[in-house]
Every structure is written in structure tokens, then in C-alpha cells.
Amino acid sequence: MSQGDKSKYTDKQKRKAEHIAESYEARGVPEKKAEARAWATVNKDDGGGKKPGGSGRGKATGHPAAHKGGESGGKASAGRTAAERSASARKAAATRKANAAARA
Fold first, then answer.
1. What is the rounded CA–CA span in Å between residue 78 and residue 76?
2. Which of 6, 27, 81, 83 has its CA 20 to 30 A from that of 43?
């Protein structure tokens, strides 16, 4: 494991860190850096180890980082008319078509 005593982390937190590290490694991040990022993510989500004596003792986790993504989505689209959204979609499609032709 990466630096630091992990004895205050629950089995679930350890599994979570392992899974996150594997995901980073699959995307080409070096093993040590992937592990450090994984533990940073677990700490961000849970506020540290959950076993007695850990910094997160007695706190229920709401996993705020894991749910943050959906909060801000859709605001830009909601403020535009149907015609503006349609024009944007046509422009995007034309761009994708042009990029595909350039690659071919």
C-alpha cells in the first residue's frame, strides 16, 4: 500500500481504493501515482478512516464527490430556445463529419 498507516480504514474503503487505483492504472497512470490518487479520492469522499481513532470516526458519509457531476448539467441547454439548440446540434454534427473526413 502507499505511505501511511491504513489500519483505521474499513475493508470497504480499502476495496474502494483498490478499485479506483486499478481504474487509473488501466488508463495508463503509473502504479504509485494511481494508488496515491485512489487514497486521496477515498479521503475526499469519506473524510479519512472510519474505524475508531480515524479522522472520520462517527461521521456518516454522503459521498459528495461521487454525486457532484449531475448538479450543474443541463443549465446551458435549458436557457436556450429550441432553434438555438437545434442549430448547435447541426453545427456539432457538421464538425464531427468534417473531422471524420480529415482522418480518413
1. 6
2. 27
The span from the CA of 55 to the CA of 72, in Å, is 30
Residue 77 identity:
S
**Entry pTM:** 0.53
Rounded CA gap, 14 and 58, in Å?
A: 18
Helices (H), 1-104: 11-26, 31-46, 64-67, 75-78, 82-103
pLDDT tens digits for range 60-102: 666 666 666 666 667 777 788 999 989 999 999 999 999 999 9
How far is 19 from 63, CA to CA, in rounded Å? 16
Quickly tell me which residue has 469519506 as its cell. Answer: 46
pLDDT higher than threshold 70 for residue 4: yes
CB atoms within 10 A of CB 101: 8
Interatomic CA distance for residues 2 and 41, integer angstroms: 13
Count CB neighbours of 85 within 10 A: 13
